[in-house]
Write a structure and sequence with these properties.
Layout lengths: L7 H6 L6 H53 L43 E3 L10 E7 L1 E2 L8 E2 L19 E10 L2 E5 L5 E5 L2 E12 L7 E5 L1 H4 L6 E15 L7 E3 L5 E3 L13 E11 L8
Antiparallel strand pairs: 1-2, 2-5, 3-4, 5-6, 6-7, 8-9, 8-10, 10-13, 11-12
Length: 296
């Protein structure tokens, strides 16, 4: 059977494809789509980084205040004698010591080691805030001997002497070195507890006019306290932390520091380069001292 074939020119006319202009238009649209997606990804990453920064800052602040608060709430506390050995044949006498034991005189919780003290501008061998309280052992079902349940800021408890068991002082000393929040425990050098700390300030609540019947509470610094640490009934602690992620913030963006002044944290400010365009958050907490056993 004879087959009919189209001329060569007619075969070519039935083939179709993209012209150069159509190809360029397609590539342009694809590149624009990728650019939009990349831009959205960068924005999402920036928002995620800022949220992560804020979360990390809040976690560090919570940890710092928990450590400081744990120590401040113990400031000046001493062992209690609750007459636990009294029985039916040996009733409690009103004259019995049922408050702080007089053995505290053996522990030097005095002017040399007050329950709370500090320095406004500490030197290399001084600390911004120092807290001290009595350490002692108590019976424990987990041990055949008495053990201490108290810990300093580094979770350390000094070895207790054989007798008397309450002749130890636990001390925690806090300071800002560089941009690290550090604490020195009992007989231990300082160790870093948190980083990216922009400021650490402590003021004290002092009671005055206690004999007039109208006592007053003043907020003062360590210099004003001088040596009268037995008049301190509370501490106001302020810290400023900053993040790691750079933020595109408007010129003049600021935060309120511990001293109440506005600090420019944008690129036009005077902060160090590693803190410019970074998220800064100020935290402040006031603690009331649970015990001032040596007051008066």
């Amino acid at each position: 059977m004879k087959k009919n074939y189209l001329p060569r020119s007619e075969n070519l006319s039935t083939q179709h494809g993209a012209t150069l202009v159509e190809l360029l238009v397609g590539i342009t649209i694809g590149l624009m789509t990728i650019a939009v997606a990349a831009s959205a990804l960068m924005i999402s990453r920036g928002v995620s980084g800022t949220v992560s920064d804020a979360s990390q800052i809040q976690q560090q602040a919570s940890y710092i205040f928990r450590i400081i608060g744990q120590q401040l709430r113990q400031a000046g506390s001493m062992r209690l004698d609750l007459a636990a050995n009294k029985g039916p044949t040996d009733p409690i006498d009103p004259a019995d010591v049922v408050a702080f034991t007089p053995d505290i005189s053996l522990h030097s919780l005095t002017a040399s080691t007050p329950p709370i003290s500090g320095k406004d501008s500490p030197t290399a061998s001084e600390y911004k805030l120092s807290v001290a309280y009595q350490n002692y052992a108590e019976p424990s079902f987990t041990s055949a001997s008495n053990v201490s349940f108290f810990r300093d800021c580094l979770s350390n408890a000094p070895n207790l002497p054989v007798a008397p068991l309450e002749q130890n002082i636990l001390q925690s000393q806090f300071i800002l070195q560089g941009e690290e929040f550090r604490c020195a425990g009992t007989g231990i050098g300082s160790q870093a507890l948190a980083r990216n700390i922009a400021d650490f300030q402590v003021n004290y609540l002092r009671q005055t006019d206690s004999t007039t019947g109208a006592p007053k509470i003043q907020t003062v610094n360590a210099t004003t306290i001088g040596t009268a640490w037995n008049t301190v009934y509370g501490a106001d602690v302020c810290i400023v932390l900053y993040g790691d992620e750079p933020i595109d913030m408007p010129a003049g963006s600021s935060y309120t520091g511990c001293d109440g002044t506005a600090v420019n944290m944008s690129s036009t400010g005077t902060l160090p380069a590693n803190r410019k365009n970074r998220l800064h958050i100020t935290f402040r907490t006031t603690y009331q001292l649970r015990s001032q056993g040596l007051t008066g």
